Amino acid sequence: MSDALFVVGLLFSAAIGASAGYALRSSKIKKDEAAAEIKYNEIVKAAEDKQQEVLVKAKEKAVKIIEEARIEEKRGLDELKNQQTSLLEREQAFSSKLLEIDKTKQDAETAKQRVEDIKKQLEEIREAGMKRLEEISGFNKEQALARITELVEQENSDALLSRIRKLDEVASDEIERRANNILALAIQRQASSQVAETTTAYVELPSDEMKGRIIGREGRNIKAIELLTGCELIIDETPNLVTISGFSPIRRQVAKRALSKLIADGRIHPGRIEETIEESKKELAIDIKKAGEDALYQLGISMAGIDPKLIQILGRLKFRTSYGQSALQHSMEVASISALLAEELGANVKTCRIGGLFHDVGKAVDHDMQGSHPELGLQIMKKFGFPEEICYQCIGHHEDKPKTLEGVIVKAADAISGARPGARKDSLELYVKRLEDLENAATSFDGVEKVYAIQAGREIRVFVNPKVIDDLTATKLARDIANKIEAELKHPGEIRVTVIRETRVIEYAR
Q1: Pick the CATH number of 311-424 from 3.30.160.20, 1.10.287.80, 3.30.70.1270, 1.10.3210.10
Q2: What is the pTM of this model?
């Protein structure tokens, strides 16, 4: 019984505690709600005050903008009014000026009519006088003129013949004198020095010890250079000097540049030699293009309408000679002389200048293509879209009677440039032609990749494709080339034919 009462007491106490806790919690919630409501009201009031302040500022700014717009509108209206007034005044002045012009025109028409009337009266008087003279003399106008001419010829026939003869002599002397002056002026303004080219180049060495490194073990370095360049290296007792021999100026230049690079680098072996020669060829290609650009610049010809490939072809003439004369220098001389002659004779200066510069452009590719250089030059100029009158100069300078005045001028300029004392040298041209014929004779056989004429034409080295030519065929090929040279070419002494069959295997370790 006592336990039951204890439990009831505990439950009662718990109920009283829960009621008190609930009452306290309710009281706290009400206080929090009151505080939150007060804070909410404060925030709302602050927002309403801020809104009111923004509205006031916006109204003030709007009023200011409206006022400025009204002022600007008033200013624009004033300016428009002033412009309208000015236009009205100008229109009134223009109307008065038109009236004056109309009056002046009317006065001029009246004066013109008066002059026409006077001229008509004078013509009538002249006709009447002529009729009166014809009646008195018994001759008409044509008969009187013929009679007077006949009488003058009879009385002064000797004097007239002497005068005509004298005029003919003076005219002939004057024409010859002027022609000589024009040619002399053109040649004088374009006079330039010429240096006879040789078939050798020289490379200075820092010491004679470098000669052994250039030769290499068992001559492998010098063989690699000669194989890749087509030139012969002459290493003799001359101190600190190596001679490069070859008829092609481009090959000599490549060999000289490559050898100079190898000497400066110090690493001389077949692999490095091959890399250096390739670099030299690329550098030479850049120099060739620059030579063409410099030629155009010196002559004042714009490069805008000229294809870069044609400029490259033009630059190759720097390394092409004609009877010992630089083909590029010769072409520039012809262009300048042609332009000077065209100015004096009233011909097309542009056609003569450009045609003179490119008249021998076929010589830049005649080693690589079949045909004479005039025909090749004509094809090149047409390919790059030049006008017909400029293209014609490539073949016109080799015709006996060029069809155009510009063609005659370029032909004369070509003869002037080539005929100056010291400009050309027959022996070098004939020598180069003989070496080219030797190379062409060997190139005509199947399986031949490269041919180089060396030792002043006393030896030709023929490099063949090892996949096409075997050892037995190589022997037969050497004999066939020698027989062809004996049958078709004129050559002094003995020519050695060397056929080289080389197999190169390359592999990479990675």
Answers
A1: 1.10.3210.10
A2: 0.47
